[in-house]
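Need a sequence for this fold. Nothing fancy.
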């Protein structure tokens, strides 16, 4: 856990996970997003990616994992997140979510983080900026 005062510009942290078919189905069940692009192999084979893809929000949720568990860490509150989805993530892909401190908002004691998720080939699949309230200490 890092408080506002402890956080330094350029500080970073990451989390890596390989996405399984089970991850996709569990996320679909929890959210209710049963889009055939995610859960129907026959339908997805006829779609633009020719196979099932992970939910974009599942992939982006690993950014939250980094923020909540590492930087700033437990007790952090999300204030906002801008996201751009750049490429599909497939079952079996290994993704790494990374956050980097890009700005400290002194007046409110909030922090802006550059957020990025890459796949096992280093291809950027999600980018964005998070605004968070670090734990008080």
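Here you go.
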């Amino acid at each position: 856990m890092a408080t506002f005062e402890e956080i330094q510009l350029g500080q970073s942290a990451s989390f890596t996970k390989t996405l399984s078919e089970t991850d996709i189905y569990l996320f679909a069940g929890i959210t209710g997003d049963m889009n055939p692009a995610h859960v129907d192999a026959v339908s997805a084979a006829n779609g633009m990616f020719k196979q099932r893809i992970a939910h974009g929000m599942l992939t982006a949720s690993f950014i939250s994992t980094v923020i909540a568990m590492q930087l700033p860490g437990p007790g952090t509150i999300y204030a906002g997140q801008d996201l751009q989805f750049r490429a599909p993530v497939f079952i079996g892909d290994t993704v790494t979510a990374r956050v980097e401190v890009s700005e400290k908002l002194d007046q409110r004691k909030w922090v802006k983080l550059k957020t990025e998720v890459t796949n096992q080939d280093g291809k950027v699949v999600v980018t964005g900026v998070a605004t968070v309230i670090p734990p008080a200490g």
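For context: The two ends are 8 Å apart (CA to CA).
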